[in-house]
């Protein structure tokens, strides 16, 4: 028997979501680390290691720009700047801010080298797909970049196209366009969608949809690797969430066990996918994606407990998908 969320609890939750969104927007708009209050940015880099940092090249009229390196040290000047809790001090020249110490740099580092495309020839796989007469009002098309994406899409459809639906919450490959692009159902992206919803009932439904999608992928020995809010699509009325981008190649490096320099073998597992669910929940609630990884985004209970469980440091301490499903279903409200 399905229980429903009492009206008073639902209203309080939605009001708290609205408050948290408004607070973050004020903080975001006031921060001079990023536009609009801050200067235009030419480039950024994440510096991993025992002392992680963020490097930013600001536009200043020179070819490379002004470089500022901010170390991620919580409860210090540099850490609070990254968390949008403090303003970036007015500084001349290239500097690093490490904790509460501001130190000048002798020269500006070069911008990160552009990442070279490693796209694969997928023409033989595309040639086997049925041709779809594309209707821009109903279909979305994209160029296939990796063989793994097409292979994974077909696995999730029982090996066929047209499809056998193994999960309604995974994007379905409809075929190929006449010019060789992959064709999918057209769904809404997070931009026009998230801000229209703030109910616990909706978030519960979306989380269960992600769990369903990952359960299907993991049963086929596919690790998503790049689960984030930008790879979630939505029905216009919010009734359905669909996970897309099934390349299973390059991905998120948010989970602490993922190496920054390990290439395609950086340590992604089913448990790192579960870690990424936590970040997806935060983005749902704030109707946004964080401007830095250091931004602290608490969410209202009971979702905060689920976020914390998903994002435990040790992969073995995170819930399984079955355990996560039970945690979410224990919240009063809809079941699918």
From TrEMBL:
It is an enzyme of class 2 (transferase). It catalyses: L-threonyl-[protein] + ATP = O-phospho-L-threonyl-[protein] + ADP + H(+); L-seryl-[protein] + ATP = O-phospho-L-seryl-[protein] + ADP + H(+). InterPro entries: Kinase-like_dom_sf (IPR011009), Prot_kinase_dom (IPR000719), Ser_Thr_protein_kinase (IPR050167), Tyr_kinase_AS (IPR008266). It comes from the Eukaryota. GO terms for cellular component: cytoplasm. Component of the EKC/KEOPS complex composed of at least BUD32, CGI121, GON7, KAE1 and PCC1; the whole complex dimerizes. Its EC number is 2.7.11.1. This is EKC/KEOPS complex subunit BUD32. Transmembrane segments: none annotated. Component of the EKC/KEOPS complex that is required for the formation of a threonylcarbamoyl group on adenosine at position 37 (t(6)A37) in tRNAs that read codons beginning with adenine. The complex is probably involved in the transfer of the threonylcarbamoyl moiety of threonylcarbamoyl-AMP (TC-AMP) to the N6 group of A37. BUD32 has ATPase activity in the context of the EKC/KEOPS complex and likely plays a supporting role to the catalytic subunit KAE1. The EKC/KEOPS complex also promotes both telomere uncapping and telomere elongation. One of its GO terms (molecular function) is ATP binding. Keywords: Kinase, Transferase. Residues 67-331 form the Protein kinase domain. The keyword Transmembrane helix does not apply. One of its GO terms (biological process) is signal transduction.
């Amino acid at each position: 028997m399905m229980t429903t969320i009492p009206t008073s609890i639902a209203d309080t939750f939605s009001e708290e979501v609205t408050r948290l969104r408004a607070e973050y927007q004020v903080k975001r708009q006031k921060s001079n680390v990023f536009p609009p209050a801050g200067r235009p940015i030419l480039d950024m880099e994440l510096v991993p290691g025992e002392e992680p940092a963020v490097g930013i090249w600001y536009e200043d009229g020179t070819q490379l720009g002004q470089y500022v390196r901010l170390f991620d040290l919580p409860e210090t000047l540099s850490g609070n700047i990254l968390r949008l809790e403090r303003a970036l001090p007015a500084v001349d020249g290239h500097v690093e801010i490490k904790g509460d110490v501001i130190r000048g740099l002798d020269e500006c580092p070069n911008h990160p080298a552009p990442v070279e495309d490693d796209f694969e020839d997928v023409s033989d796989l595309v040639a086997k797909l049925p041709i779809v007469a594309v209707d821009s009002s109903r279909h979305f098309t994209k160029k296939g970049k990796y063989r793994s994406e097409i292979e994974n899409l077909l696995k999730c459809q029982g090996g066929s196209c047209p499809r056998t639906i193994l999960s309604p919450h995974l994007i379905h490959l409809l075929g190929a366009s006449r010019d060789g692009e992959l064709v999918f159902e057209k769904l809404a992206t997070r931009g026009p969608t998230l801000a229209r919803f703030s109910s616990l009932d909706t978030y519960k439904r979306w989380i269960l949809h992600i769990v369903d999608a990952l359960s299907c992928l993991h049963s086929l020995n596919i690790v998503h690797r790049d689960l984030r809010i930008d790879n979630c699509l939505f029905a216009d009325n919010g009734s359905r969430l669909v996970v897309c981008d099934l390349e299973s190649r390059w991905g998120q490096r948010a989970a602490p066990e993922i190496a920054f320099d390990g290439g395609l073998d950086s340590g992604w597992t089913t448990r790192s996918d579960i870690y990424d669910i936590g970040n997806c929940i935060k983005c749902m609630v704030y109707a946004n994606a964080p401007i830095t990884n250091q931004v602290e985004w608490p969410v209202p209970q009971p979702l905060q407990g689920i976020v914390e469980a998903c994002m435990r440091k040790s992969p073995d301490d995170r819930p399984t998908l079955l355990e996560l499903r039970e945690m979410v279903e224990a919240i009063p409200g809809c079941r699918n």
